[in-house]
Amino acid sequence: MSETATPAKTDQKRAINRLKSMYPLRNVVQQDYIDTLKASNEGKPTVWSMLNYWEGDLPLKAMGLNIVYPENYATLLASSGAAEPFLDASDSDGFPTHMCGYGRSTIGYSYRMMKENGGKIPPDAPLGGMAKPALLLGSGIICDARFKWFQSLARYFDAPEWCLEMPMMATYEGSEPELEDYQVKFLVKELKDFIAFLEKLFKQKMDWAKLEELIDLAVKIHETTYKITELRQAIPGPMHATDFWSSMPPSLFFAGDMKVALKCYQDMLSEVQERVKNKESGINYPERYRLIFAELPPWHSLKFFDKLAEMGWNFVFESFGYHAPKPPDLSKYSDPCEKLARLSRNFMFNVFPEAKADNIQNPIVETYLKIARGFKADGFFMHPLISCRAASCSLRTVQHWEQEKLDIPSLWVEGDIIDKRVFNPQEVLARAEAFEQTMDHYRKVRKSKGLDW
Amino acid sequence: MENATPALFFAGIDIGSTMSKAVVVDAQGTLRGYVVGPTGAEHRRRANKVMEDVLLKAEVTLDQVAYIISTGYGRVNVPFADKQVTELTCHAKGVASLFPEVRTAIDIGGQDAKVLKIKNGRLTDFLTNDKCAAGTGRFLEVAAETLGLGLNEMGQISLQSDTPVKINSLCTIFAQQEIISRLSEGQPLTDILAGVYIAVTTRVVKLARQLKVEPPVVFTGGVAKNSGMVKAMEIVLGIPVLVPEEPLITGALGAAILARDEAFKLVQDGDYKMHKKQLSEAYIEFTEKGR
Amino acid sequence: MVTATTKGLSRAHEVYADRGRRMRELRKAGKKIIGYICLYPPIEIITAMGMVPFRIFGDMSEPITAADQVSTTVVCPFLRSIIDLGIKGKFDFLDGAVGAHTCDIGMTTIIAWRDYIKDAPFTHLIDVPHTDHAPAVDYFEGQINFFKKHIEELAGEKLSEDKLKKACELHNKQRKLVRELYDLRKSDPPKLTSMENLEVMVSLFSLPVEEGNELLEEVIKDVKERNIKPGKKKARLMVWGPVFDNTSLYELIESAGADVVVDDTCVGTRAFWADVKAPYNLHALAQRYLVDIKCPRTYRDTQHQETERNYDKDLDSRFNYIKKAVADWHVNGVILQSVKYCDTHGYEVPNLRHYLDTLGIPSIYIEHDYSERSLAPIKTRVEAFVETLD
Questions:
Q1: B206 and A94 in contact by Cβ < 8 A?
Q2: Phi/psi of residue A137, nearest 5 degrees
Q3: What ipTM was reported for this prediction?
Q4: What pTM, to 2 d.p., does this model score?
Q5: C19: part of which helix (H) or strand (E)?
Q6: How many helices (H) and strands (E) does chain A have?
Q7: For A92, which of B169, B174, B210 is closest by C-beta distance?
Q8: How far is C198 from chain B (nearest CA, A)?
């Protein structure tokens, strides 16, 4: 079932109580694809970009460039059930099968486009596919795959490439306040070189005023989404994880028109506030359990969460890596490159020092402990991915400490972001029933230790 | 075939994980006799038995055999072999001797699968799957057990279908569950079986595509005797495949031909003590025949 | 200096078999032992502070039983092995452990160390940028400076320019000696086997730099004098890939009928080919480690800021040092090996194989899971590869 279809009108009770304000946000992304494709067909150059936590997105948008996000496109491939031929194509070109599902999809797409379809978009590519890139913008943020696979795209495209730098996130060394200025200095230099390159490549000047305006909008969007996140801690949880995943692209990589997106998020904030006031839940069944999902969703099987919602499982929070933190105050900086650097860097490091309460050295563990407390979680749904090390390797240690520090159990469900052949929903549902008893048990344990959930 | 020079023969023994095969060829590389039997646990004893059997079959004595090459999983357990060569090289040689123009050879064994690229009769590249049952004969055995059918029966029944059911699971165990689910949903047995063959073939062809499948394609291994499997292979590849009359013995055949080549090379180098005179004569005759 | 009774290759064999022994002796004598993972921590700084650098490896013969609580199984088995050994207390002779952001899992190894491994109370994680862009080199210099400050706290004294210069010279001397040793593998047959070579390399990572230099001088002298009869080996091979720290893999290849005469691995040439250049300051270190070491974890941006891009040109810029090694060591085939789940090397494989194809150099890719039992199935493939080189 495609996630891009508008809601069907049916008498049957729908398990997840979707926010009305989610749909326009989803449409922002869809519209973006359509606009991008139209622009490419009219001869406008297209940039393929990796998620770069805003340091690359905003300069590209300020220059009015056409942007496509292969990582996001891969999730579309997965959710519309169209991924397999692309995954197979990547395997057949000698790339390891354990590779990132997004990478496999993109490499497979590029292979099929350039080697099998003579440079044309493969006919089975949903939503009109992705146009040939004029620039490949890779990023080293979060994981190696994200710049290594872009480096490999040179096999198929002659497009120039830039790998955007960012200090490695989630380290206490990196979070030392005295290091902030030095990291920002690095990023500013890199950004200035990058923007100079964009000007050279696309033969146009950067519109600095526009960039300032977009940075401003970015901060407003993130302030809004942050408020929504805070509200989601209410009981019952007012917004289900699937709504977040459907509506996050305009805040995660500023897909589409940012002014429109801001308005949509403000509407979402109002709607969530309303729900909290009325104690309205994100699921249409009584909230029996509050679940946190870590880390990357099974894009190919999102309907699966309906089944869990019917059991009263409300996924109240998810995927910390997709959430922008409370944005920093950028008003005292005048250089837009510096503002950008600080905005990005904020995510990499400022999420973690606040979370140092438990004296665990793994910042991701600390963050999820803070989240578990804030959202009063009954259980963690751990989804380690066969193809993603960065988003999966820490899940074991998160599981360990959630159990040890907060007596919160985890359900361990292996799968992949794109390849649905390695996910077994029947088996998971069977285990979910049993897991309820585990969650019940640990509720009692927590109460006996004085915790209030 | 018999002539003035004493007959001289060469043997190849392929000790696989499930089946052992032995082949005897003459100096021309023509097949003289072969045997196939289950390997069992004792490789050394098996090797001796298989050698005895093939000598009987080929109507030659051991001292008429000038050179023996062993291959396969158990090749180190053939004490009387003059040399050990991998089954990859031997299969390529065997297939090329039967189909000189071959470019791609696909071999599906009981517990593994191999893809060989061959050019001008020589192995140039290869890939193997020895980790996962899903692309091997084992998958078919599991399916047969699940459905209470014999392997040949399964093949015959599957031929009746042109609408194979898609089996998605990458894992043999999960696939078993899928087969049962499809049956209980009322899908026809013929379609399910056709789907099983397509599933195994798809896994192996995926491996093959990494080396670029170029025709002519030869399909070997015990599984290649099964008509359902051959049909599936041609559907998934989209091109016809060639299957030797005895698809199980290509490894041993290749080993025997390599044994012949190796022996002649030694004669050239002046290295080989035993059978020197007969070998030289056989070699001269061989080269005179211009083959 | 070396008090051991054995010398040269015998000593290397001894050290290889018990890597921690010399470190334990030195620790008893009052030295601080600082373990490090991978090639990016600048060991010159450790040496300059009067401490002894010890490279941390896993153990292919030790089944991983204690690491599951810490990380999932679909990660680099070499690094999982390190965590496993650490939890089991096998690194109890270390005073410190330094890691670097070499790759995703490499980074999380030190983070996990802090929460799960009791030994080596001093830990430090050095961030390494992904590219070799100019701002990145400066940033990395800052990271090295940050590391220097931290280790100065441990040492209770500051690092002097003079001490750093001396340390750089000692480590450069070691690299020069290793290159001399590798020259002795250019002959046909090579003057030492790849197993012997590996034992020497691993020993260098298990001894203080001066002792390693002495060992190398002994080995070179012994090996030079050797009289090796021409053998029947059919192939001269190069091995490429990540950590390859156990002789069993080289033994397997050599028993398949080939000589391994050179490598591009981090327990071989990657560690010793580039020197630190004068004036031996932190910037020189940053340059050597980030830019001069050739490892796929670094995005070597050969067409940086160019508006046109050419794939083959890029490959040649990235890999022509392999082309040179193939020529200089008269190599007729390359074995690309990697551990399962290694992303940095995995993505490189199709590109490198394409490059080798264009040069007409045969290659094969084998993947293992860094355990001795995963080697048997590889043997057949290596043998078949050698057979194709006939």
A1: no
A2: -105, 100
A3: 0.90
A4: 0.90
A5: none
A6: 17, 8
A7: B210
A8: 27
- As a whole number, mean pLDDT of residues C44-68 equals 95
Nearest to B85 among C377, C381, C387 (CB): C387
Q: Nearest-CA distance from C59 to chain B in Å?
A: 23
Testing the interface with B: which of A84, A90, A92, A112 to mutate, by most B Cβ within 10 A?
A92
Fold topology of B100-237: Nucleotidyltransferase; domain 5 (3.30.420)
All residues of chain A having their beta carbon less than 8 Å from the beta carbon of residue C311 are 154-155, 158
Rounded to whole angstroms, how far apart are CA atoms B84 and A57? 60
CB A285 within 8 A of CB A56: no
Could you tell me which residues come within 8 angstroms of residue A218 by beta carbon, excluding any fewer than 6 positions away? A54, A58, A254, A258, A327, A343
Q: How far is CA C171 from the centre of its chain?
A: 14
- List average pLDDT for each run of 10 residues in chain A, which is 453 residues long: 44 83 92 87 91 93 93 89 92 89 94 94 91 92 88 93 87 77 92 96 96 96 96 97 94 92 97 97 96 92 92 95 90 94 85 66 88 96 89 90 95 87 84 93 95 93
* A143 in reach of chain C (CB within 8 A): yes
Which of C380, C381, C386 would best serve as a mutation to test chain B binding (most B beta carbons within 10 A)?
C380
In A391-410, the residues whose Cβ lies within 8 Å of chain C are: 392-397, 400
Judged by DSSP in three states, A269 sits in helix
Question: Closest by alpha carbon to C178, among C205, C160, C138?
Answer: C205
Q: At the fourth CATH level, which superfamily is domain B9-93+249-288? A: ATPase, nucleotide binding domain (3.30.420.40)
Residue A420 in tokens: 């649905």
Nearest to B80 by CA among B259, B281, B224, B289: B259
Beta carbons of C71 and A397 less than 8 Å apart: yes
Amino acid, res. A187: L
**Which helix (H) or strand (E) is A291 found in, with range?**
strand A289-294
What count of Cα atoms within 13 Å lies in the side-chain half-sphere of residue A439? 22
Q: Name the residue among C377, C380, C388 with its Cβ closest to that of B123.
A: C388
Q: Tell me which residue in B86, B130, B131 faces C384 most closely, judged by beta carbons.
A: B86
In chain B, where does the domain assigned CATH 3.30.420.40 lie?
Answer: 9-93+249-288, 100-237
**What is residue A366's three-state secondary structure?**
helix
Non-local (6+) Cβ contacts of B171 within 8 A are B132, B134
Strands (E), chain B: 9-15, 19-26, 31-38, 65-71, 83-84, 104-108, 113-119, 122-129, 217-220
